[in-house]
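User: I'm putting together a teaching handout on how multi-component assemblies are represented. Below are the sequence lines for each component of a complex, exactly as they appear in our records. Could you produce the 3D structure of the whole assembly as structure tokens, so the students can see both representations side by side? Please keep the chain order the same as the input.
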Amino acid sequence: MLKLRDVKISFLSSEGLLAPVDSVDIDLKEKETFTIIGESGCGKSLIANSILGLLPKDAEISGRIYLEEEDLLSLPEKSLKKIRGRRVGMVFQNPSSSLNPVFTMRSQLAEIMKYSGMSPALQNMVDLMQKVGINDPLHRLAQYPHQLSGGLKQRFAVAFGTASDPDILIADEPTTGLDITLKMQLIDMLAQLHSQRSILLITHDLDVAYTLSDKIGVMYAGEIVEVAPVSSFFSKPLHPYSRKLIESHPLREMKPIPGNSPHIAERPQGCRFSSRCEHGDLCCCSTHPEMVQVDEDRFVRCLAYA
Ligand SMILES: Nc1ncnc2c1ncn2[C@@H]1O[C@H](COP(=O)(O)OP(=O)(O)OP(=O)(O)O)[C@@H](O)[C@H]1O
Ligand code: NI
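Assistant: Of course. Below is the structure of the complete assembly, with chains in the same order as your input.
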């Protein structure tokens, strides 16, 4: 349904051309939830934003992003606009920054519905509010963003992303900043959406990933290092980084991963995780591992499996 092939995103900086996202391949199938997990700064949001052509202006992108047979990277802005919201919806990482402070929620939602080719009739809005669990919709629609709690803003963000009933939803950290009750409610809501459409979910919350995903893609320093179905991933993670990520969970050993991920300008020539990996040998520092298939639907980028 949605296929990313060899996607590379780079920026020109004083240190030269830096690529926070490097040769990323992702396959999102119909009615499947594919979740990207990984530390802050590994490139998750850049990937999410690249799909709908919403990268910063100074970003360069190469590779191919197929929606069905169409390569979105080769489409003019006019055609992308038709896809945005209608076929692919987006829930942005920071709802406050994507809401306009001077308009009521109703006028912002109306704008999005019109843009997506839907009638902004009040009843349609109220139905949508119900789907995302916003109580007292007439009151909430009349409010401005600053009058809403974080949880409500997050719900509105999901309402905006799903207003036109898109086939694909991209949700970037939809549960960040929510308390545990709201987080559980949002997870329930996403789980309901999940049965009807494909979701590309981005989170660094392993509980969210475990609950909602069909497949997990682990990112480290701009690369996907493991792809696996959710159950086999959590029962038997293959990449040393995945194992450490799971061990760092509070309900497991709560062991933080020692060290930091390498700065973009100082990535090692070999495996990018080599400096933090206790299993690495000399080869790991000099040979960059390719993604290898180790089982029908399991892929890992580690020389131990090459
Ligand atoms: N406009 C930009 N100019 C230059 N570099 C950028 C720009 N935007 C992002 N980057 C670089 O890309 C890296 C990845 O950013 P991205 O927002 O995709 O990370 P992330 O994985 O979503 O992190 P988080 O979990 O904190 O949201 C950042 O560490 C930053 O160095
Ligand atoms: Ni992000």
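A couple of points students might notice: The first helix runs from residue 44 to 51. The CA atoms of residues 5 and 306 lie 21 Å apart.
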